[in-house]
Amino acid sequence: MKQLGTLYFLCGKMGAGKSTKSKQMAIDKDAVLLSEDEWLSSLYPNQISSFEDYLKFSPQLKPLVKKLVQNILSVGTDVVMDFPANTQNLRKWFLDMATEVNASHQLIFLNLNNEQCLRQIAQRRNEQPERAAFDTETVFIHVTSFFEAPEASEGLNILEFSGKE
């Protein structure tokens, strides 16, 4: 029987380091990296300037991305998804994506507190000035209000990092 790929996806508040961690994981695991930010900016250039815009456009990617990821997993290649798995509903989408093709999965939970995240957001603003309008404490507070930490009852393989590693 053919070896299937593993689906890796990340959970953590805004600024927890999901994109940085996903890039490193893709290198370490010799995996395909898919970034939601890259897909959204390519498919909807200059159309996403608020969290509400994101909530409008993000679901439009999901059917296409799901099929692509399942095809990649089916040929035995690991996939790291830099898409937030920050709510129970989103995590179920990732889990279903893997289980429908009998692939394994790993949720990486970057469990940083608000202060750690805000510190990293401030640093990111300096390094990427084009993100300054979105990378604010106000946006962080708004986005964090939707955040749901993963729970064992969701049936996920969770690997947790507290930011002290």
What does this protein structure show overall?
It is a single chain. With 165 residues, the protein is of the alpha/beta class. The chain has a single domain (6-161), classed as Rossmann fold (3-Layer(aba) Sandwich), CATH 3.40.50.300. It has helices at residues 18-29, 36-43, 51-74, 88-99, 114-127, 137-144; strands spanning 6-11, 32-35, 79-84, 104-110, 158-161. The chain has a five-stranded parallel beta sheet with strand order 2-3-1-4-5, with helices on both faces. The model has no long low-confidence stretch (mean pLDDT 93). It holds the Pfam family AAA_33.
CA-to-CA gap between the ends? Answer: 37 Å
How many domains? The number is: 1
CATH architecture: 3-Layer(aba) Sandwich
- CATH level 1 class label: Alpha Beta
Largest sheet: 5 strands, parallel
What is the strand content?
A: 15-25%
Report the mean per-residue pLDDT as an integer: 93
Remind me, CATH topology?
A: Rossmann fold
Number-wise, the strands total 5
DSSP summary: helix tally: 6
What structural class do the secondary elements suggest? alpha/beta
User: What topology, given as strand order, has the largest sheet?
Assistant: 2-3-1-4-5
- From the alpha carbons, calculate the radius of gyration and give it in angstroms: 16 Å
N-to-C series of helices and strands: EHEHHEHEHHE
Spell out the CATH superfamily. Answer: P-loop containing nucleotide triphosphate hydrolases
* Overall outline: globular
Task: State the helicity in percent bands.
Answer: 40-55%
Q: What ranges have pLDDT less than 50 throughout 5 or more consecutive residues? A: none
